[in-house]
Amino acid sequence: MLSVEEALQKILNEANVLEAESVPILESLGQVLAEDIKSDINVPPLDNSAMDGYAVRSQDTKGASEKTPRFLQVIDIVLAGSISRQEVVPGTTVRIMTGAPIPRGADSVVQFEDTDEQKNKNTPAEKITRVGILSEARPGLNIRLAGEDIARGTIALKKGIVVRSAEIGLMASLGYSRVKVIRRPIVAVLSTGNELVEVSQSLPEGKIYDSNAYSIASLVKRYGGIPKLLGIARDDEAELVSKLKQAQDADMLLTTGGVSMGDYDMVKDILARDGEMLFWQVRVKPGKPLAFGKIKGKDKNGKSKSIPHLGLPGNAASCMVSFELFVRPALLKMMGKKNLTKPTVEVIMEDSIKNDAGRRIYDRAIIEKRDGHYYARLTGPQGSGILTSMSLANGLVLIPEEITKVNKGDTVQALMLDWNEEVNL
């Protein structure tokens, strides 16, 4: 039986980075740049004002103070998006708004608060012909220089970085409407089992609704993939094979259920027969019955390809934990990302945990920070089918295989599922 690290490495070995695609910049959020973003312009394009105020020659403000104002003639008003055609010569100034280009002759901007404009507050701005400067201005004061953010001809964003909101804004500031990024993987999701019913149908006695398809598809979407729901396959070989064929154009196949030791758990058997089986058990709790292999598929050009297939456990909590541990890193790698692991913190346990399984345990927990320390308490019963244990959790406490018991007050590692301090109590 493989360790968590051994199983993950085998999965990552088969998860190849996908090709690039061109998308509108707004759709690139969370994807990885497949090209350098080079600037053909200066940002900002011209020297401009960082304040609302007056553009002046700094030497005209020498000795200025509230007691000894320096009075200047106002020769123009310039707003953001317009350009003053007036030149600031000795004894003159231009009233200027934030973002407006600096007029010729000016070398600094005095903000409104350092002028006597408040004395003229009842006078319309366009009627102000003289202003008193109440403080000295040094050259360059309140001026943003052309290209100080991004200079023409430089690489503004490097290939391989993850696109966030700031990067989208930056691309927009350079006039990019589209960008090349590593495309999002299409992930086929198939539920298996005679006991399952679609959520839109009435629930017969002895049946359960198919929750796994929705929790797993939403995780695929959360981490940047495109889920393709294939529905439910009954415990029938022909139906299962037919459903698997619908995944031939996907980049990854996820099945839930059908990978344990039961007589009707046939997913791993069909995988071994029609594809390639690499392993089907991991030394972890929950999630021991995890199958991994490859099935045959075709790309958009009809060329044969190999599709990684993970057979996740059918129990709801096991299914989600297995996704976080094994599927998420593979998806991120396929999208060209380098940081594949969730953050971990040291937590002080507020419950005791027994480990009599000889496997690494990932128990669902509520993790909170108090008095400079992180504390963890279990979400309640930790059965592999208890989905509420995941709903309440914002982390997983990790108990190594060799540790048989963790006592209240012991310090352990916890994998953070979410960083928010809010939990659904």
The CATH architecture of the largest domain can be given as: 3-Layer(aba) Sandwich
Question: How far apart are the first and last residues' alpha carbons, in Å?
Answer: 37 Å
Mean model confidence by pLDDT: 93
DSSP E strands, number: 27
| Major sheet characteristics | 6 strands, mixed
Summed up, the helix count is 7
Helix/sheet category: alpha/beta
**Strands across the major sheet, in which order?**
15-12-16-20-19-17
CATH hierarchy class name of the largest domain: Alpha Beta
- At the fourth level of CATH, the homologous superfamily of the largest domain is MoaB/Mog-like domain
Which word captures the global form?
elongated
Q: How many discrete structural domains? A: 4
What name is given to the CATH topology of the largest domain? Molybdenum Cofactor Biosythetic Enzyme, Chain A
- Given as residue ranges, the uncertain stretches (5+ residues, pLDDT < 50) are none
If you compute it from the alpha carbons, what radius of gyration comes out, rounded to the nearest whole angstrom? 31 Å
Strand content: 25-35%
**Estimated helix fraction:** 10-25%
What report would you give on this structure?
With 425 residues, this protein is an alpha/beta fold. The chain has four domains: 4-19 and 184-305 and 324-334, MoaB/Mog-like domain (Molybdenum Cofactor Biosythetic Enzyme, Chain A, 3-Layer(aba) Sandwich), CATH 3.40.980.10; 21-44 and 148-182, Molybdopterin biosynthesis moea protein, domain 2, CATH 3.90.105.10; 48-144, Molybdopterin biosynthesis moeA protein, domain 3; 344-416, Beta-clip (Beta Barrel). The protein contains seven helices and 27 strands. The strands form eight sheets. It has a six-stranded mixed beta sheet with strand order 15-12-16-20-19-17, sandwiched between helices. A hairpin with a 2-residue loop joins strand 23 (360-370) and strand 24. Helix 1 (4-13) packs across helix 6 and helix 3 packs parallel to helix 6. The longest helix is centred in the last third of the chain and has 19 residues, at 316-334.
